[in-house]
Each structure stands twice: as structure tokens, then as C-alpha cells.
Amino acid sequence: MQGTRSRFLTVMITLGMAFFYIPMILLVIYSFNYSRIVPVWGGWSTRWYEVLFFESPEVWAAVRLSLQIAFVNATCAVIIGTLAALAMVRFGRFRGRTLFGGMLVAPLVMPEVITGISLLVLFITLQQLVGWPAERGFTTITIAHITFSLAYVAITVQARLTGMGQDLEEAASDLGAKPFKVLTAITIPRLTPALVSGWLLAFTLSLDDLVIASFVTGPGANTLPILIFSRIRLGLRPDINALATIIILVVAVCVAIAALIMYRQHKRDLRDEQLAERGGG
Fold first, then answer.
1. Is residue 195 pLDDT above 60, yes or no?
2. C-alpha distances in Å from residue 277, one per residue of 33, 65, 191, 271
């Protein structure tokens, strides 16, 4: 019975992994396809990588814009989301806490179309009232991305704060450390895995967003998902496969780096806990 169950789980996991990764593998393979027609195999070639690097300036303009937006979005989302999580976990009960918590997680369940329309109406109203923003583009897309990304960061950091306890923070306070010193010397370093995870999650969500960005962008401010979507409607060129392959490689490297950071932080936390237990004993 145990062997049958183990084989069943192995088969299901294998099928799940195949369902997820086979399309990516096919995309990488077809990025080396010589044929201009994506599904028709014309032999191995790096032709479309050359086209991508030397004949597709609009693609790289979209990549630069998407990366700039994603970086600013992820950084701001981590700062604001971390402060929100600290307020929810470390500040105890305060007036409006329930409302604040509900508003914090609302972007997680709100349909993207509704979020996009509401932000578009907001920006149009602000432009009519105060003349800002003068045009929709980098700034409006970044603000829109921060509004939903910080919710993911806050949930990630909040879970970490809830699970790691306050023993070391209370000990530092008892020894005379100021609250800001406790925050920067103890709390933030222990939150590193959650902060890194939240930053990468916000960065990825920004790069991946199409619906909200399409509402709050303007002429000449095409992010990479918007550019790819517009090309699909007119006929997808194989150089997009080459670009997607490069993105997969970059993401894989970033995930590996994040996993290494989290593993080292976990080992450091275990060592600190062992030292604390020995000191207490």
C-alpha cells in the first residue's frame, strides 16, 4: 500500500512538472529555429538572437522601461509593505487596525480590470484638477504596480514576523538598545529572506503585468508585455522566443541567488538560536 501511494505521488509530481516545464523547453528550442514561421522547424540557428540584438530597438526600449518600472516598484513595495507588516504585527491593537488590514490585502482579491479602471479614473481626475500627471507612462505605471505589489510584500513579511518571535528584540531592548537600533540591527537582518522574496515577487509581478499597465500607460510607453501582446495580434516574430529564453535564464539565475541567500540566512538563524539556548542554559 505504501509503495503504491509513493508511486502515485511520483507520477503526479512528474506530470505536474512536465505540464509546467515542457512549454518552456519548447520555447527555448524554437528560439533556435531558423524558420520565420514559429511552428515550422527550419533547422538550428541563432538567427533570431542576432535579429533581437541588432534589429529590434523597440524590443529593447520596452525591456528597459519594464526593468526600470519593475526595479522602482519592487524597491518601493518592499519599503511600504515592510512598514505595513510591522504595523500589523508589532504595534498590537490600534484604532482602524481591521480596516487597515482589509485594505492592505484588498489588491490580492480585486480583479485587475477593476484596479486598472479605478487607477485610470484617478489619474485622469488628478490631471484635470492639478495638471498632474501631464502624461501617462513610467510614473503612472510604477504607481499602479506599487499599489498591488506592496500587498504581496506585506503578506510575505507579515508571515515571517509572526513566525520568528520577539525574543531577541526584547533581549536587545532590555540591554538598552533603542527601538531604531533594534529594528536595523536585529529585525531587518532576520527579515532578509522575506525581504528578498518579497522584492523578487514584486519585481516579477511588475514584469508580468499586462492588464493594469494597459489602462494606465500612454502613447510611446510600451512595457514588454504590452509590446508582446500587440505583436501577437499582428503575428508573433520568432525573435520574441529568443527574448523569452534570455528572460528565463535571467530569472533562473535570480531564483538560484535568492535560494542561496535564504539558505545562508536560515543557517545563520539556526546558529543564533543555538547560541541563545546555550547562553540561556
1. yes
2. 59, 50, 21, 10
pLDDT score for 58:
86
CATH topology of domain 57-280: MetI-like fold (1.10.3720)
Structure confidence at residue 166 (pLDDT): 67
Read off the pLDDT band of 277 (50, 70, 90).
low
Instruction: Convert the pLDDT of each residue in 154-174 to its tens digit.
Output: 988 888 888 776 666 667 676
pTM: 0.79
